[in-house]
Amino acid sequence: MIDLTTRYLGLELSSPVVASSSPLTGAPETAAALEEAGAAAIVMPSLFEEEIVHEELEMHHSLEQGAEQHLEASGYFPNLEDLPTVGDRYLATLESLKRRLSIPVIASLNASHPGGWVSYARLLEDAGADALELNVYRVAADPDRTAHELEQDDLEIVASVRSSVRIPLAVKLSPYYTAMAAFARQVVDAGADGLVLFNRFYQPDVDLETLEVVPRIELSRPWELRLPLRWLAILRPQLGTGTSLAATSGVHSGYDVVKALMVGADVAMVTSALLQHGAGHLHSIVAGLRTWMAEHDYTSVDQLRGSATQATAGDPATFERANYVAALHSWTTPAHLLAGHHRGSRRSPA
Amino acid sequence: MTAVDPSPLETRPSRRTRWACIDGNEAAARVAYPLSEVIALYPITPASPMGEHCDDWAAAGRPNLWGVVPDVVEMQSEGGAAGALHGALQQGALATTFTSSQGLLLMIPNMFKIAGELTPAVIHVAARTVATHALSIFGDHSDVMHARATGWAMLGAGSVQEAHDLALVAHAATLRSRVPFLHFFDGFRTSHEISKIQLLDDEDLAALIREDDVAAFRRRGLSPEAPVVRGTAQNPDVFFQAREAANPFHDAVPAIVQEVMDELAERTGRRYSLVEYHGAPDADRVVVLMGSAVGAAQETVDCLLEQGERVGVLQVRLFQPFPAQALVAALPPTVRSIAVLDRTKEPGAVGEPLYLSVVAALAEAMDVDAPPFARVPRVIGGRYGLSSKEVTPSMLKPVFDELARERPKRHVTVGIYDDVTHLSLPIDEDFRVPRPAGEVQAVFIGLGADGTVGANKSSIKIIGERTDRFAQGYFVYDSKKSGSVTVSHLRFGPEPIRATYLIDQADLVACHQFGLLERMKVVELARPGATLLLNSPYCPDEVWDHLPRTVQQGILDKGLELWVVDAYAVAEQVGMGNRINTVMQPCFFQLSGVLPPEDAIAEIKASVERTYGRRGRSVVERNFAAIDASLAALHRVEVPGEVTSDLTFHHELPPDAPDFVRQVTAALLAGEGDRLPVSALPVDGTFPSGTAKYEKRAIATHIPIWDPEICIDCAKCAIACPHAAIRMKVFPEAVAAASPEWFPTKPFRSKDLADHHLTIQVAPDDCTGCGVCVDVCPAKSKSELGRKAINMEPALEHRDAERPRWEHFQTIEPLDRSLLPHSSIKGSQVLEPLFEFSGACAGCGETPYLKLLTQLFGDRILVANATGCSSIYGANLPTTPWSVDADGRGPAWANSLFEDNAEFGLGMRLGVDAQRAMAEALLERLAPHVGDELVRALLDNPQEDEAQIAEQRRLVAALTERLRDVPADLAEDARRLAATARNLVRQGVWLVGGDGWAYDIGFGGLDHVLSSGRNVNVLVLDTEVYSNTGGQASKATQRGAVAKFAAAGKPTGKKDLGAIARAYGNVYVAQIALGANEVQATKALLEADAWPGPSLVIAYSTCIAHGIDMSTSMSHQKDAVRSGYWPLYRFQPGDDDGVPFNLDSKAPSIPVRDFVAGETRFAVLRRTHPERAQHLQHLLQADVDERWRYYEQLAAVARSVPDLTETEVEVSGDGALGPRDEGEEP
Fold first, then answer.
1. Catalytic residue among B37, B74, B78, B846, which?
2. pTM to 2 decimals?
3. So what's the architecture of A6-310 in CATH?
4. Is there a catalytic annotation at residue B78?
């Protein structure tokens, strides 16, 4: 019997496969299907403070449009006694997920100003979230603000939320920090119980027909897992076992989960593969994990976790610059340039 | 001073009282709602808010006095509401309705029935002018006076408190007396005045409404358990006696009303009587009147009493049954002369109704053995206050002066200058009533869009409800829907406020828009030594030099204290955009001193929390930030000792403006309309066209600027512009070459026209800045994707350059109308619009259709316009956007009513056809003299295109010439022909109106007119909601949309009006959306015009009531069509086996969800009722799918109309315009 249980943010999970933020985790029906398919926990889609503010202001503007402007019409809409906002709806969804599911529900929050983080975090805790994932993300486009200042802002957010809620706290980071290892430690020192590596973002694209700049997001590809793999491998020994780590970006199969666990993750989070193949795909990911472990005689996730970190992989440089040199060599191998060669046939650089 | 009766409010009751600052509508509705089980409604200004309050309360589940939520039902017209009221009453259900003006007139047939059946009911009326030579939404008693004969008791309230209290008196007295009650108060002055009043509570209501009366009423209700018949037809033998049988019930009313009033006084301390005298017990002169003017009259009397005069005022509260004895008894026995003032006019009558009643009452009273007066008092009658004309002490004091004269005028008018029949009394400008000690008067001038009115309503509530001061607010708006100016008049004081007129001696004047200093009277409203607060973009050191000269002079002359705040900067800084309400509000409190500053700030914040709390924290927090930042930005200005400015007022008219515009329109534009004498006004309501261009409101902060380098000549900007403020002209190269170098042009790309240039020009002072043109512009800069061929730029930076360009643009000859095909966008947009610069909302979805209509055939159409938005932006004084071309031709426009527009338009058609038939007959008769050739040419010209129509005009001119010298024996015929010959030129009759008219109130008439086969064209501007009265649901409202009277989303689908019209077979029907497909829309209008029978064009019209960004008003329509929400089609009847139904849009390519997601009217339901929203959206999608499936099948169905030709020839009298060749056999 293979033991798939793991601990993440102090939560006992039945497996290391967690369904991450997506429309699937934001509706009770699909979330129930994920649970059915074997998700050990779900992370709800992020509650964006900007979205709340935007919606509140837009709705306000829209209801006020034309109000008190003409003698015959003091306004154009009935007087609505109650007008729930995005935040209210999010909390309602969270409550209904908690009623419906038995697995932990992790709420996710992206606020735009310090007060917003704390107040919404409290609301999410009160609504029954088992844990909270802070999605700290911004585009550092202000030329007057240095990396240090921005990092300090993030750390303050983490500290202030930590001091205002009791539930476990994860921080989802982007890979774009100059000194990731140092920053990761500071985030943990500020009170994070765990780190989620890494964020993926909407990026601008140009629509060549309409000649407009449009935001787009592509589903992840399995190769994208490499970046979190490196940093999990580096951070796991540095942060020790007291800090939870989650791998996200490019987790598509049971094998990807195995890799994530090996470099030190406590859980692997899946999104794109589920959006592509449906909630039921989660079942095959768990099955793939189980099969691999059986084939390789692993009996528990504990055994697997951290077996290939920078500290345990034998050659620490693999996860640092030397690895880059090897990779370049592999790309210059002429074999894969020959016609008819499938991408998958490329030799691994390892 | 002589003893004065205490006003009701001064009698403080001992028990706990609740105070509130509400308006008269709410005051009445707060009583009507809990005392009703059925509330049947139809919106009409100014009564609509009463129904809307009831709808809001019912939607929130608020129970009535008996614990049940009243059934609030919107009907299709006031006639329908009265019918539903009548029916509910027949069942013994407590029922009410609210109305005004024409609405009350539509209820009158049922009112006769309800009274004739002695059925308790109350109608609450915000009394409003009945339309005569013009529509007026304002207040007078011409509507209620029309209900005199119905047998309803009539109870008139004079203040907001009275509207509240007398509402209860009416409900209680009707149950006791069985006589139905019409409870009325003055439209706007009372219905919309916010005043601090004492509220009745449920116990008060329960105490006065006797359950025995209710039970008796229920017992009389129809029931199959004890059946009766009611509403029989009676014959000469008994009808008369039966009418007289009810006399005792009517006779009992006055005593019952007084009984209820006495019970009310016992509970509340507020004592009322049927008629109430106020003044000297030994007065020799008394004014009698009713309604809101009583407050002003009481102030006048009090002031005159102070001066030792013996005068008084008698307020009539119960008008029907007329309390003659009570009235005589209430008059001081010393009275020698009486002026009875009526707020209505009955042309040709001996006098107006109140006058006649008083005269009769006195005559009867004196014809007894012991008459009450030593000598019959002399009675004169006066009219005042029509259409909310101000009535002030300055106007009322001369009435007392007149009464003092040896031989006063028998009939007078008050408040105007009548230089025609010389009835008016002079206005005593020097007579002013001193304001009570401690009262603060403040006037605020702002724009509708900046939140000034909302802020002032909040201030009134703060002061009225959180302090022991009394408060009053009255709000004046201009007639525009975009860029409208609002003036708020606020009074606060330690005593109840009786002044029922505008403030002209304010302690504080605040101008919230710096630009209005050039257009509005501002300093004129301040008393000497007052405070003037300006929202100024200029800092305290610089502001003086930016003030107009007259403003500077006024500040110096009156010694005003000047303060400035840059409210827009503060609002911008805290993310409030252009809403400066919470910036200006703290400044008002700071300067007025009505509350300590820190208390004021706390109260304003609490008010924001109450008002906006449910809209979300961010809304509240931004307002808080604005409040916090406001006072720091408030600065006192050191006023220099001298006038330095050269800036003048902005009312200059071009030198070639017509005399009428210079003498009359200019006065209206300058806000001087009140001063115009009677002789200045047209006697029959006829006004010149084309006057909107003289307004030059310059309301846009950003205007579109053309970049010829990028332009691709598509003309979409011009066709989409709702205000005709962006224009296209095409002209020969030589014209371009001769233009100044600062006038940009570019070569015109067209396969139809070579060697021409094009220009796109904004009318910089007429543009509203809505941004629609830029939104629809498809041409983008190759090097800068965000830049288009037109771009919104700051008006301040561009106006000076664009003004001469616009002037020059107007001098360029329009292109010959026959050079480009009118069905293309370019082809229609080189045609001159004869509908321009309307005051419609910025981005209005209706006006582009009207503009296009006038471009296509404006020089030969008659427009019958239903009452609604289009009649308001179309013809609300001071100006009209309906315009004329260089030859003086243009659309001839008229509005009759809301409900009868189809019939009205049909009548126009009949009138044209009758005169044309006569002209044709005369032509035949006079042919030997005017020439056979000319006659044949006139009669045979098919007039199918521009050239033929031009030819017909030429022929008519030639005919007119030849008619000058006919032999004497034919002179009579020649004169007749000359008078009717203009009807030989083809004229189109367009029936224009909104969905409220076409789908609801006017549907019966519209259906009949469509069935007539006559050549009328109907254009329905379908906003899917009653736009003009503020967004009430109509039968055009789509399923799932939130509207007033459909707060939880309309549960039923939209009526397919086109399907009903198509069912006739011979009606041309089109459904269009200009923003989605300009060519299809244009084609439909052209085909409708060409079709010799009836045509119906249903035009999708975006509206602010949809809750969309109105800059996307046009482009948004694309998604309406793409989703199948609004399919485009044209149904062209024919007599062959063709397929008449052309489906012009493609199969839906996006779900309806995607379209409605961007509209607040749908989106809001997802917030308030998520599950219901989902359900209704599912049904809406099913509606759309099913309609599409049906239409697709229709698009393959062959159909013919067997008697089509017969119909054309016989009925339209216009066979030459038929789609078939002449002479073809049917």
1. B78
2. 0.92
3. Alpha-Beta Barrel (3.20)
4. yes
